[in-house]
Amino acid sequence: MTTTTVNNPGQGNLKGKLGTWLMILATAALAFVMFVEFVNILFYDPFSDEKFLFKLAGSLSDVKIGPLTYLMFGSLLVALMMGLPLAFVTGGLGVAFIYLVGDSLMLNIIPSRIFPMMTNSDLAAIPLFIFMAAMLERAGLIEEMFNVVYKWMGGVGGGLAIATIVASTILAAMVGVIGAAVVTMGIIALPAMLKRGYDHKIALGSIMAGGTLGILIPPSILAILYAVVAQQSVGELYLGSVIPGVLLSSLYVFYVWIRAKLNPELGPPIPKEERIGLKDKLLLLKDLIAPLVLVFLVLGLLFGGIATPVEAAGIGSFGAILVAMKHKVFTIATLRDASVTTAKASAMVLWIMFGASVFVGFYILQGGQDFITESILGTGLPAYGILFLLMVLLVVLGMFLDWVGILLLAVPIFIPIVEALEFPGLFGLPGVSGDDVVLWFGVLYLVNMQMSFLSPPFGYALFYIRGVCPPEISMGTIFKSSLVFLAIQALGVFLCIVFPAITTWLPNLAYG
User: To which H or E segment does residue 459 belong?
Assistant: First the structure.
């Protein structure tokens, strides 16, 4: 006996009409509330109890910081789960809670939070580095670089995956943008690895893990933002992240090599007839001249103290234009496309910064910093236990928020907690001096943010690679491919905690 299900088109229309009417009613209610509050602001004394119909200003003024914490961050979570953009959610909720807890006069703290960021010259490096990445992507430099490394490493087991990681490392040292590296490497390297019969997990994982190195290795855009928020030297943070970045890249390479050594079918080398001799390999190195000159130019100027991050970014952007000219791809259309990409990405970053600054700034002003600090320190955990808790919280946040949002929502609250602790060292090893704590935590944070890009279910790198994968590779395979590299990144965080000199030695050597 078969049962036939008949879809009722009238039911769908009814749901659609109901949703439309609910939206209209909600909009009308909001407009009415705004009209009443507008009348109150214009015609009634804000310091008296007189009002027109009702008054929302100050209605939450008696709420303690504990319940206010749940209200503010609960509202943020609900709004984000509804799919609303982070930039406008944080800013909008910040303004709403300022008005509900205080009054219309208290809204004056909004420009006082935003204006210092608008006048911070270090932030000018962000659009310049984004432009540099966009121009190099259009110049075809990434493909050239991968081709050279692939020809050098192709004869090794897992050579294509290793070449992907090495090329991504060089790319990370040129630009601090993640999406371009993952997508471009996915387009170039993934078909080559799948054609050679590489294990899907190794192929996908090496692309995603290598691509995320741009968040750590200088000139990382996230490092600039952290330095601005934490009042830290960008140059010191860049130097502190060099060794951890190279360490992670080496761990990725070692993992791929050892897996291919144990089981050559996971990453077979290219056939002998397709390999080239040493002479041809040396001739290929000329294609690496442009990217390496750009790396040494930008990082050399930064680390040598010759140029500020903004100046180095400007020189790097000009160098990217010269590279595009060398490859005969520099046109007005190319310049326009790169500029539009830069404007969109920079606007997204800056709007999130403004919105989150208002939201977190108001929360701290209400005593939120003291509340969080006392709550965490009151757990009775030792210093390293609290650090572990903060690292776990960052990983959890990384599953749902983007890196800019995490930085601006969590770091201003976490830094005073870390500064209040002493880290004498683990297992009898040297600890972290008080002057180096913020720098050390900053590098730990950057390594942690790499994990956020690979963390299921919403890690950005997972969806970047999904966009360039063939249809036979499922989202489940992509999730599984990230897990081993997530474990390697966790190992990187652990090593930086146990051996803090990994992050502090180079800055102390350069700056004393």
Answer: none
